[in-house]
Each structure stands twice: as structure tokens, then as C-alpha cells.
Design a protein that fits this description.
Three copies of one chain form a homotrimer. The first copy, chain A, is mainly β. In chain A, 4% of the residues lie in helices and 30% in strands. The first copy, chain A, has a single domain, classed as Hexapeptide repeat proteins (UDP N-Acetylglucosamine Acyltransferase, domain 1), CATH 2.160.10.10. In chain A, strand 30 and strand 31 form a beta hairpin.
Chain lengths: 249, 249, 249
């Protein structure tokens, strides 16, 4: 256990073994941290809100939360969470294992992501978004939820299926479904569902081709599904499945 | 009065009754806070700048400023201000009552907003922007001001009239006027004036229809003007006017 | 020397004369600050990472780093650096003199910029980006690097030549080259090279005209190259060259 004398940590917070809390960080009452969690400097954990309905912030084993981040009470993260700096996650957010959140991401809560999801910097996830497993989301992409803003009781979240990749600066309209293994091109406005294994792009986004039509520049074959050639950071059992399915490059 | 012993607060700052200052927050000299203001942790208030010309930061009664926010001296806010986390507001910004500012918003100062304005996350307001009353601005929208960047002395601010709604990830070009009760669709580049009560969208934005043509999904009638069906957070006297004008759904 | 008693500063960091360190700031071991450097409150300097390969964070004379910023070890900045608030710069970033970085910028490291570069708020610079001298980059612009995300070993950085200006909310695709003295219009997706002295815009961006075709609104002649009329903040020797080349307005 290594708690900075410059941090302010509630006695009521519950810590696993070998937790580290950085300088000038505030940990509120309603927080449960697993083993080997590192919380860096200038963070706020377990920010109180009545919207949590009393549920705690739960961070699984082995997490690293980088500086200046704010996590509300009432959200739950599987093991292996890693964040960039200045991340915000509000209440009622639920994440599987090994989520990576980029610097400046803003997750509004009341949303759900699966295992091994990676969001790059400055991704905004609105209420009711549902993201599957092994999804990639690139910088400045926004998941909206209100079909006629402002409104009440009409919210529809975006759904992203497993293995999809959504490139930089996309805006996804309320209720669209992004199909498995698809690619949304950069700077797109997605106004309707994206078929599995397809590529869309533009404002509004249109189907451009099948994902398997895109070739790696080195001549080694299709760039998608990306699991064919990109294995960094995934566990061996998952990679073994991918190699069986797509071969070993 | 509740001032954290971990905060650093100038003796010269002026506080109303029942003010709360959070941990690790810095309050500089030239600050005037009203009654019942809450400033959370890790903030900087009254950041000194010669561009303020000596004028103070004035925050009206009942404000809540969330963590990691920075407010410069020389700006003034009516009562009821509420902010998200990591908000920046520079000097010479003037706001009416009940402004809500989302997480990560970046207001450059030398701009003005009316009463009951709501900006969602990560909105960027450039110098010379003028925003009316009861306006909605959604995430990642930017108000520009320089018609041929970089230049000096050619700046023209965007003007947004009362009750307009500007959706996610829009870019508004210098000097455009967004008419009252209009809707700017998501991911639009607004290069010319938007007519009152109209809907525009695209890059560049074109007129798509009248706002009243858009129907609520539940079959209960037009989605705009939004005051027909959306009342959350507004005062009774304003809602009563809306009900008289649009009926009570 | 003025080090806040509320800061946490490593004995191993090396400071020039007249350095100022603000409240609640953390300075790690592997940091070298020049003369007259001001680091404001709530910052983290020299954030440790093995990716720095042991190289220090070096900040040249006269820098001002505004509050809540994070600089990793392993990057180097010439004299005269000025930043906004909440800037992030990761390892292996190399900058010339007089760089100005706007609030909320997120520089991923492994990139290089020349002298007198100005980035406005919320600019995201990916690995392998190379930016020349006297370049302007406006808010929410993103420099990407992965032609088929996610991939490994296929990264290609964007190249921006001297005196180019890239307007608000642009997305630059991997490997594109933005030619000298060109202008990229707001909200553009740049998918191919931009010719020197040209103007492009749109999604995807197309050539619109030559930069010299754009006239200042006051009738005083072409708006580009901007060095004709915009001199604020540049040194006299550079301005003298510009006046010789373009005349003195």
C-alpha cells in the first residue's frame, strides 16, 4: 500500500492489496479498489451523486488511472482498466475487462462496454450507448443519443458490435447499430446502420466497400478483419482463436 | 462557510454566505462569490490576467463549479451557474442566469450569453460570440471568429438567437447568424445565416426543412419548437409562457 | 526561484535561474528547466515512462506552462514555449523555439514541430507528425497516422510545410503532405496532398482556389500568404524578411 501523504483518502473506501494513491488525489467514501490498482495524482474517485442510488465505484484488479481523472460513484470496471489523463466517467457505467480509455475521454454514464475495448483520446460516450467486445474507437468520436435535441424520454443509444473500428472524428446518430467487424471511416456522420464487415464514410456516411477489400500497404493481404494482423495487448487465448480463424501472419 | 484546509484562498477574495471551497483549489485575489456557491476540488478561480483590466471574477448566488475548472478574473455570471469538470472560462465573458456549462468546455472570453443557456461537453466559444436566451449547444461544437486565419482586426463573432439548438460537432463560421428556434444538424459546417425556425445540415450546411416538420417519434406532434415538450430545469414563469403559446403536453 | 510550499518537487530536477513552480504541482526527477520558466498550479512535469529511454524533459528559457498540464519525460522544447491549460505532451516530442500550445491540446509524442508554431485549443497530434516553421493549427484539428486502424508498423505521419494554416475541426489522414503557405478550410477531411499556396476544403477536401485569391474583407489585398498582414508575436528579423518580400501594410 502506498498512499501519498498529500492525498485525501476516506477511511470508508475499501482497498485491495498493494494499492497506490498519488499526490493531491481525493478518494471519497463509496469506492472499492481491487488489488494492485494505481491511481495517479490530482484525481477524484467516487465523486458523490444521488444518481448512483448509493452504489459504489468498483475498480477491478490491476487498474492504472492516470492523473487528473474523475470517476463518479456507481460505476463498475472489470480488471485491467488503463486510462489516459483527465478522463471523466460518470455514474452507472459498466465495463468488462481490460478497457483502455484515452486522455480526455468523457463517458457520461448509463452506458455499457464489453471486454478489451480501446478508446483513443477525447471520445465522448452518451447515455445508453452499448459497445461490444474488442471494439476500437479513435479520437474525437462522439456517441449521441437524442434524436431531436433537447428532448426527454426519447433517447436511443448507439450500439457497436464486436470487433468494429470507428475512426477519428465520427459522429454517430442516436440508435444506429454499427455491425461486427465493420470500419467507419474518419470524419463521418453515421445516420443509419452499418452492415457487418462493411466500410462506410462521408457526411452522411455511405457504404464504400467491404472491409476485406482494403489491403495492407505492405502487400500482405487484407487489412480487415484487423484480428488477422493486429495482436498487441490481447491475451494468448484470444489470439489463438484469431490465428485459427485467420492464419498467423 | 466551508473552506477546505487543503485549499489556498486569498484573503482579498470576497465571499457571500455559505460558500464551499474544495480541496486543492486556488482562489486568487480578484474574486467575488455570491451566497451558497460551491467550488469543488482542484479549481483555479480568478486567474490573473492584464486583459481583465482589473475587473473581478463575479459568480452569482447558488453556483456549482465542478472540479479542475479554471475561471479567469474579469468575467461575470448571473445566479445559478452550473458547470461540469475541467471547464475553462477566460476574461471578459458575460453570462446571464442559470447557465449550464458541460465538462471540458473552453470559453475564450470576450463573449456573451443570455439566460438559461445550456452547453454540453467540449464546446468551444471564440471571442465575439453572442448567444441569446434558452439556447442549446451540443458536444464538440465550435464557434469560430476569424474569416481568414490568422488575422488581426477582422474578427466577426457568431450570433445565436433565442431558443436555437445546435447539435453535436458543428463548426460555425465567423459572423454567421443562427436564427431563433432553428436547429443545426449534427456534424455541420455552417457557412451562412440560418433562417429562424429552419433546419440546416451538411458540409457546408444547407436548409433541409422547417423545424416544425420534424415529428417526435412517439407520434405526439412536432419536435420543434422544443419548448412544446421539454421543460426540465426551467422556471415556472417561463414554462407557463410556453404552455400558453404551445399547449401543455 | 519561487517554488510553492504546496508543490512537490524532486531534488533531482535541474532548474535554471528564476524558476517559478505553482501550487499542487508535481515535478519528477528527470526534468531540466531553463531560466525564467513559470510552471503554474496542478501540473505534472517529467511524468516517468520507459518509452523515454531515460532521456529527460527539457524546457527552454522563458517558458510558461499553464495549470493542469502534463509533460512526460523524454521531450525537448526550445525557448519561449507558452501553453494553455490542461495540455498533455508525451515522450519523444521535439519542438523548436516559441511554440504556443492551446488549452486541452493532446500531443502523443514521437513527433516534431519547428519554430514559431501556434496550435489553438484541443489539437491532437499523433505519432510521426512533422510540422515545419510558422505553421498555424486551429481548434479541434486531428493529425492521424494509421492508414488502417488498428495496425502495427504501418504508421505514416502527416507532414505540414512552413507557413501553412489548418483551420478548425480538420482531420488529416495518414501520410498527407500539406504544402507551404496553403490553407485547409474548416471541418475538412484531408485525404491527399495539399499543393503549396492552395486552398482546400470539404469532406473529402478538394482544391477550392489559390490562397492568394482570398481577399481581406477591408479591401487591403490578399489574405494569404498571411505574413503580408499578420505580424503579432513574431521577432523583428522574421518580420523584416516578410516586409521585404510582401511589403508593409
Amino acid at each position: 500500500m502506498s498512499i501519498s501523504p498529500l492525498a485525501k483518502v476516506s477511511d470508508k473506501a475499501s482497498f485491495g492489496s498493494n494499492v497506490t494513491i498519488g499526490d493531491f488525489t481525493v478518494v471519497h467514501d463509496n469506492v472499492i479498489l481491487g488489488d494492485n490498482v494505481v491511481v495517479e495524482s490530482h484525481c477524484v474517485l467516487g465523486y458523490p451523486t444521488p444518481l448512483s442510488e448509493g452504489t459504489p465505484l468498483v475498480i477491478g484488479d490491476g487498474a492504472r488511472i492516470r492523473s487528473h481523472s474523475v470517476f463518479y460513484e456507481g460505476s463498475i470496471f472489470g480488471p485491467g482498466l488503463v486510462t489516459g489523463h483527465r478522463v471523466t466517467v460518470r455514474e452507472k457505467f459498466k465495463a468488462g475487462k481490460n478497457l483502455q480509455i484515452g486522455t480526455l475521454c468523457d463517458f457520461q454514464g448509463h452506458a455499457e462496454v464489453g471486454d478489451y475495448v480501446r478508446t483513443h483520446s477525447n471520445v465522448h460516450i452518451g447515455h445508453k450507448t452499448v459497445i461490444g467486445n474488442c471494439v476500437w474507437i479513435f479520437p474525437f468520436t462522439v456517441f449521441t443519443n437524442d434524436p431531436h435535441p433537447p428532448s426527454d424520454g426519447h433517447m436511443k443509444g448507439v450500439v457497436v458490435e464486436d470487433y468494429a473500428a470507428i475512426a477519428t472524428m465520427c459522429c454517430l446518430m442516436p440508435g444506429v447499430r454499427v455491425g461486427t467487424r465493420s470500419l467507419v471511416g474518419a470524419h463521418s456522420l453515421v445516420t443509419k446502420d452499418v452492415e457487418p464487415d462493411s466500410v462506410v464514410g462521408g457526411v452522411p456516411a455511405k457504404k464504400l466497400c467491404m472491409a476485406s477489400d482494403i489491403q495492407l500497404k505492405d502487400g500482405s493481404g487484407p487489412a480487415y478483419p484487423w484480428m488477422r494482423h493486429f495482436h498487441r495487448g490481447y491475451p494468448k487465448d484470444l489470439i489463438d482463436v484469431w490465428i485459427t480463424e485467420y492464419g498467423n501472419r
